[in-house]
Amino acid sequence: MDVRQINNIVLAYIGDCVYENYIRHFLVSKGIANVNELQKMAVKYVSATSQCNAIRHLINKKRLTKEEIEIFTRIRNSKNHSHPKSCDIVTYKNATGLEGLIGYLDLTGQSERIDEIMKYIVGD
Predict the structure, then answer these.
(1) Could you tell me if 106 and 14 are in contact, meaning their C-beta atoms sit under 8 angstroms apart?
(2) C-alpha closest to that of 27 among 37, 17, 18
(3) Domains parsed from the chain with CATH numbers
(4) Does the active-site annotation cover 106?
(5) Looking at the whole model, is its pTM more than 0.90?
(6) Other beta carbons less than 10 A from residue 100's beta carbon
(7) Residue from 2, 16, 88, 124 carrying the catalytic annotation
């Protein structure tokens, strides 16, 4: 499978699953046992606003490679005209770009790199 040929939104779809799964495992490993509390805590990490802030921080602190920034930018700039009413289009596109980058890394077998990025995002 040539990952470069996969639709950018499909990469974001995969990345969303990987990202959310990482967050859920992270929160459970912190000893949170109440499902309602887990959901509230997860939203702090998986919302478009949180993801937008995370990718901006990763870029500003130079935590991404040139290739990763190119992948993020390509996915962020993909034409997808729908976005939720809960955030503006720029925030949504940045969040989608982060998810797409995670999806790309996952499909190219770069699980250690995903772990590095996600640990940085959660402050672990």
Answers:
(1) yes
(2) 37
(3) 3-122 (1.10.1520.10)
(4) no
(5) yes
(6) 28
(7) 16
